[in-house]
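anyone else get weird line breaks when pasting these?? whatever heres mine. first is seq + tokens for prot A
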Amino acid sequence: RLTPDIDNQTVNVCVKIGSNGSSPVSGKLLFAVKDPKGNKLANKEVQINNTEITFTYPINNPMLWDEFNPNIYEATATLETEGMTDSKCETFGMRKLTNQNALLQINNRRLFLRGTLECCIFPLKGYPPMDEAGWEKVFSAARDYGMNHLRFHSWCPPAAAFRMADKLGVYLEVEMPMWGKDAQPDEKRWNFFRRELRGILKEYGNHPSFILYCNGNEITGDFSFIEELTATARQLDNRRLYSGSTARTRVKSDQFYITHQTTKGHMAIYEGRPYTNWDKNKELGVGLPIISHESGQRCIYPNFEEMKNFTGPVQARNFEIFRELLDKNHMLDQAHDFFRASGALTAIEYKDVIEAQLRTYLKGGFQLLSLNDFTGQGYAPVGILDPFWNTKGLITPEKWREFCAPTVALLRFDKRALYNDEVFEGKAEIYNYGPTLLKNAKINWSITDSNGKTLKSGKLKTQTVGKNGVFPLGSFSYALDNITEPQKLTVHLSVAHVKNSWDIWVYPRHSNLMQSTSEVLYTTVFDEKAKQHLADGKKVVLCPKPSKVKGRKSVFHNHFWNPIMFKWPPMTIGCLIHDDQPVFEHFITSYHTDWQWWDILENAKVIEMKDAPAALRPFIQVIDHYDNNEKLGIGFEAKVKKGSLLVLAVDTQKNINERPATQQLLESIDRYVKSDKFAPQITVDESYIESFLKK
């Protein structure tokens, strides 16, 4: 057992000798160390007359271990006694971990964990890799996406994982196979956990990557037993920090706390917001380092192209069921579009979730659930990576690292959708947990249009930026009065060698929206007047109040984790926007929802369209959860009798002067329906329209 002491530049050594005899063991122990460069340090010889020897070994000017410098020492103890020789080799790292001032610290500097969960998802073999190469793929993928930490959710990985994490500089949090009710009184079970705790610490305790230990996940039961385990672990081994349970009752011996909620408020961040001027600092201050529990976890529609990759014992039978349902509901041709659109939204959400975590400068870090998909619990496709730790092609590692890395440029602002008579104001910050200061860092900002043309640029004060914290850099503004047409702009910020960007949308104000003419009738009710207008071969725009529409609640966000395990509203996973249709000619959008859709979707209702003609596809098509796969929409058009009908289940009145994106969507619809381009081809009966409206 090797316990580093970087302050005194020593390693404390404990050697135990197994002996079958009754007599004391006598002889000598030779102790040798190689430094990370392979140089041999001075040997130490110790006379022994017992089965346990402890001594201190000097390591002058030690090369410390952390994520940036994963320096590994190698120690060999050789026993010579009574004509026989035996040796044992162990690796270790010179590092120090503390929780002073409720902050994680490694080697006397602050540590911020950017982590993801590892839930033992290995479909190709059905068990975790037992070789270093298998773990190199996992940890390298995490590092490629800016992570420095993995939490092993309710399990302890094999030795190969620790060895590779040591080499790559990845911080690990390890747990026993304890979850839920496992702490309820049961002496046989409790004795297993007592043995398992000691076994984990003995077997893997020398690994410097093993920085955190927790008994298990979301435990319920007798917490006096949880306190017993935690206190015992602290007494046995002080080389890491300990916690009783994730996301549940705290115990006296806790040295850190992984949670979604403190006594001061919610800590986990599951979704973004239509502005960036927020953080979670006020929810902290509970006396321990806080790590956010299972943040993110927004669904992506399954990618059926992955089915062919399940060549091992785990087969994608659920995907077969999902695909059959989609085919039954006449939308199988849209499967890949659903995947792309929902995936784009999840990537957008993860950017905002992670940036909010980084802005929370008092926190000890965060743990996503998860960077890769989870094949259990009915299937939770929440990852940017698939279950095999391969990319889904939704976002590149380079783009991801703009907002998740040791050093990240951050920008606080109050709106993503603005009128052109407003002023955009940004407050620049830098999250810097990199290895060095940013000396004389040049800070540049610019705003470009959709063609990449720079509309305005500027510089903030050149300055030296500290490390191991979040630092303000200054502010800038841009008057939007030269924007006369709807535009998507991009705000760029660069600090020294790092860069980041954010999209905003700018719109002119519109008055006299939704004005009826002799040809076009705007209405909130499908009454006799509207029916007669259609019978006469004219045009009707029906915008029923969401409260008058049967169907599901509309929200901006994708469903949480998965709709099979958590059957709560909205049970939808984003929208597929048919952006090539002329209804969007004057409303800037891509094929997926982005932040300009926030106030539209938050003030809408999802229409269930399973009884509509199979060929009818809504232009705002909501993606149903994948074990249901019904056709859903917020906006669609159809031919009714001789006339043309456009339905938009969006509140067009509530605070409409404060909703620039909704105004612009209505303006685009108005121009469309009053043009010759509005000529729906698919016919529906009046009875279908009445079927989703409340009396």
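and prot B, same format (seq, then tokens)
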Amino acid sequence: MQSNRIDLHAMWRQGRMSRRRFLALAGSGVASALLAACRREAATPTTAPQPGQTPGVSPTPAAPTTPVAVSGKEFHGAWPYQVPPTGHFNLLEGVTQSILGAGIYHDFILSPSAMYYWKEKKWLPLLAQEWGFEEASNEFVLKLKSGLKWSDGSPLTSQDVVTTVWAVRALRNVIWRYIDSVEAEDETTIRFHMSTPSTVVERYVLKLRIVSDKQYGELAKKVQDLFAAGKDMDSPEGQAILDEIKNFRPEQILASGPFQFDYGSITNAQLTLVKNPNGVMADQVLFDRIVLFNGETPDVTPVVLAKDVDYATHGFPPATEKAFQEQGLRIIRPPVYSGPALLFNLDRLPEFKDKRVRQALAYAIDRAQNGTVSLGESGKAVKYMAGFSDIMVPDWIPESELSKLNTYDHDPARAEQLLTEAGWKKSGDVWQTPEGKNAEYELLFPAEFADWSAAAQNLAEQLTRFGIKVAPRSVTYSQQPIEVDKGNFQLAIQAWGSSTNPHPHFAFVQDLFTHNIPIAANQGGKGMAFELKQTTDVLGELDLEQLVVDAGLGLDEKAQRQNVTKIALAFNELVPMIPLWERYGNNPVLEGVRVQPWPPDDDPIYLNAPYGDNFCIMMLWTGQLKPV
């Protein structure tokens, strides 16, 4: 597969161009998971209502979609979703609580321009025909395939891309740290002017799921007018537009991918995606329907055991994985390039503002134990504590700098020394803060993520034994990150690193922006409230927000390594969050029932992150996965 880059200078000379982007039942094993699922199934499934639009929002709704006939081949997956109206069909990136949570199957509804093969470092073109950088004018140019259509038969054009890019600006999409304008040159060509030239612009553009101008055009125009008037999202007008976008509730979404929701079939138990014949590359997908079983790990486990699921990405406990293997299911272990981390609310817990305290906890926690308890051999303790995957560290940090990274090996004595230096004292078996308060905290974690639940329980036990009393509290997976962003927590489990993008820049966005001041503002809070201007021993005074942007600067990745190394060293010293372990998938695969055998374990496709350029989605899209 070639990267399909444009010869931009040639096109310019020929006059063809004008100027101008989670996973508490590990210890309980299969039995309690089955019980939980049986309780769920006992409830009568209800057909999803059709939610109306929010008053005051008037973009044109999608035309009703006619499902294909109920014949043909099915692929069965599993993904947690919320039945409407709680789960909704505003699938714009950055909007919370959309029906599939912006998960991997959304790519089949709203197609990105391309998907990426991580090992080969090559792209699979989808909406895109060609793309490339025009260095002389600091532009990235995207050319769409001709003849693209939405599910209602209307043309998909460059205006849809422009609308999408402006709409996500309201949600503080990081692409706007690098570009200052986007312009449709003709029906298929879009030019992005880079205020800050960067290789990551390619990834941000190509992976953005495109929404239709018909549905989002009015909202996008309001965002564009806001910035043209010299205002931004922090203004009252900006907040009003943000609320309007977040509350937009289309009855249906126009689809560009090879599938569309079968809206009338959505129940508490499952939903069906039906073939969208107008979708990009729909003729290459060999399945007619995708059936998705609803639920997180406890709910999905019995369905997998019953061999009703062909593929699942959930974080299954070790006992459950063993049961799968005993049933003859194959387990695929792709690297996730991410995992759970311990987050601190520095607004509510000022005693953790001292980096020595966070460092102490990094020493106090046995990360290897935490990973093993949570996911068996698929939970590997983080070694380098660099803020991005250990797998990628040697590619980005020179050998001479690796020795500067503190690996925070389990060392309770060193932890006690650091706490004492920070003014903490031990009263019997309990630590007290410098203010003389007993160190007692609540740890918020997503209830349905079995591996993260197990990590939280084990973490609470470890820290309590160490003398810092931690009480774990579960919140449903869809609400927990919102509570974190709003600052309604003391300690929390959330993700570190990037399971969706292969450049370290994206990992640092997750670590320092997503549940922190820059992006938590979308929920009206500050998240961790970790200030991004910091003084470090290793590098002096730093503006981490600017450094994260700088990590992707320029069009030469070799030059980017210096900035990546700086952030890694700062992250390692400051430990704004404590990465616990790096997750490897333990994805069950059923072969020979509905799907022919998958590629062998050594196929490089399995080095794709399961939550980024998901290998199953890509193999379905290209016809590599075949029905029986």
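btw re prot B: The radius of gyration is 24 Å. Residues 1-70 have pLDDT under 50 and may be disordered.
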